[in-house]
Amino acid sequence: MSYDVTVHQSSRGGCYFDKQQCCAMLRAFTTLLKKTDRRRWADPRNLYASWESRNKQVAALVPSNSRVIEFGAGKRILERYLDPSCTYVPSDIVDRGPGTIVCDLNQRPLPDLGPNVYDVAVFSGVLEYVRDVPSMLDWLTKYVPVCVLTYAPARANGHSPRDLLDRIGRLRHGWMNNYREEELRSLFRERGFELAQQEDWEEQRLFVFSRRRSVT
User: Fold this and answer.
1) Which CATH superfamily is domain 8-211 in?
2) What's the burial of 115, exposed, middle or buried (CB within 10 Å: 0-12/13-18/19+)?
3) Which of 28, 129, 145, 203 is 20 to 30 A distant from 154 in Cα terms?
């Protein structure tokens, strides 16, 4: 992945960035402000068809007969691939159709999901855009015993040129956090969840975290 920025010379002697680079820089600026890019996610052109294979793989990790809530539901592709015995509720920062719980995970307070309503929470390509992951997990883990999620771990957390390039790249994606894989696992472990399963999807990891059963 390249993070180079190309500056083009115009016929009039000025300089300009291409549209894709301008969008990336705007995303980085929005990320630095720690704000959800509502305009970006309201535009269906930013919900890519290439994500369908990820949703299909995630759906295979959801147990049958589960009551599922998906955060960042997008086009609700996951719903198509879940086992027919499952029930599905979409949640996103904009309305995604009937039954949507409109929720911005970067705003407080977060909604009351009710006791024993959902079995599984799904985050497919979402956690990177959450500003305060620990407090979000404090909220979420009160309501669901299983979390299925994808995440693109940070390659490192140092100050070398390569590490800085990685952070710049994450900013250009609009990602608000930089967890390494072990750090993410620790966040769930501290809240009483254990890693039940792990797979890969392209450069991302797929995790299933399940609440540890208390020993009596």
Assistant:
1) Vaccinia Virus protein VP39 (3.40.50.150)
2) exposed
3) 145
